[in-house]
Write a structure and sequence with these properties.
7-stranded mixed β-sheet; alpha/beta; about 210 residues
Amino acid sequence: MVDKSHWHLIKNGIQGTTLQLNDAVIRKALVNFLKDRKPSPKLIAEEINIHNGNAIADIVAIYSDSHCFEIKSDRDNINRVLRQAKYYDLTFSKITLVTTEKNKLKAQEILPEYWGILIASNEVGEIKLSYLRKAKTNPKWCSEKALLSLWKSELIDTCLNLNLTDIKQNFSREKLATHLSKTQRKSSIRKELTDKLLNRFSERSL
């Protein structure tokens, strides 16, 4: 059953026009939706490469952990999310699919129960977002794979922050991620991940 306590309307400003639910329209509505919610994220980032470039996360909201929002519009093949899901599952603490009424039943059928589903629907000149179900903590999160969303310089800085002095500049990103995952607590890695992404995207906005 749709959670009707979380409506979000984005006015298009064109009366009598029905918005097409494409990626760009849903993305704009989603960003505003996240900004308006409490607690609001510390940062909203778009198009983050993860798992050595095997997937690109559409929207990532940074709280104390990272929450990935994958958009599948009316124009998209929703089955593609299955290929992307394995990388999102390894990388993010929570994942939500943002899709349309057209894809609602298929989303419920193919997605694991810990994924959230957020439905975008259109009315005359406005977009409405409502939760079909909220995301739960992802049980498949992997610290080693999650660390591969960081640049090498960020991984080296993470090692230094966690007092790992036995690393070398010629270590690959994969080796740094493996070393961190084997020697550090998951809670420490989660904090470093969110801090590094916050720093990266905050610097871009300066």
